[in-house]
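Here's my example:
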Amino acid sequence: MIYKDKRIVKLNLNNTYCANLLKTDDLNLDEGVFNLQRTMLEYIYYDGCWYHIKPIYRIEFLYNELIGSYLMHKIGGRTVDYLIADDYGRNDVFYNIISKCYREKGYKYYGVSEFNGLKNDRAIYDRERKPFDDRRLKKLGSEQLKEDILKLSAVDIYMFQTDRRFKNITLELDRENNLRLSKGYDYEFGFNSPLKYDNFFYCNPYLRVVHNEEGLTKMIDAYPEFKEYFDILLKVDIQEIKDYIESNYPIVMERDSIINRESALKKHDVLQKVIKR
């Protein structure tokens, strides 16, 4: 049974059941989504819904998952919402977070490589080292998909996200064959390394930008929508983030974590300059 209190979840596994996901068609799950051998129980079914359980091994990662979801809502993006799981019985895991599975029955879901035929290869970016590269994004026919990618990219750039790899983006095709991103997930590697803030470049399967005046200017000139998103995000300070987490979850942000994120946000002075020009 799932008991909800201030977004904390207590799982009594006697009253839930684990499906053999390899034989479950309703969710269109593929083997890349889960590893039953490793996690033992990565999805549970309760009260007509599937829930995904994700182990979190560092408090920093937990903060980032909660922050990413909050920021996506701020700019009107689609995202999974998180609960914190307690009493899960995994002694090696600091926390677990639970989210309602984003996969809708009757919809189709694809990995980027599977749908677009793109290779999971960052070398094309690293060889040429362009300050801004949107060649793959330009080729997309779906305007809704482009909008979804831009919103996710804006949040990632704000958070200095370093892990928006192919497996961390999923494409969704609804019953009318409308293509867009699935709900966003995997924000844990934002604010990950203070050493990388000064030389940060953002990369996802569809675009790459170097976090300097030239790269950010080219990106915003090409996609003016970014200005709207960053106007909202850059008004979010560490106090708002702290208040959100502590008022909605049974945790208190550690002082070092606050200082780390505060120092990261100060590195957006270049982005502030580009937005205001």
Residues 191 and 261 are 6 Å apart (CA to CA). Residues 2-100 form one domain. DSSP finds eleven helices and twelve strands in the chain.
